[in-house]
Amino acid sequence: MTWLVAPENDYRSLLDQPPVEPFLRVSVVIPVYNRVELLSKTLAALVPQTYPAHLLSVVVADDGSHEDVGAALAPFADHLDLTLVRRERDGYGAGQARNLGARTSGAELLVFVDADCLPDPELVDRHAAWHHHADNLVVIGSRHQLDTSQLDDRTLAGAEIPLREEAFGTEEPSIEDLRSPDFRLILHRRTADLRAGGEAYRSLVSSNFSIRRDRFLEVGGFSEDFHRWGGEDTELGWRLFQGGLYFVAEDQALVYHQWQVDAGPAGWRTRSRSHNQGIIVNKIPHRFYRTSQPGHIYEIPKVSWVVAPTVGERAEELWEQLLRQSFTDWEALFLDDGGPVTALAEANSADPRLRLVTWPERDRTSAALRAARGEYV
Question: Which residue, 1, 250, 213, 7, is CA-closest to 130?
Answer without folding.
Answer: 250
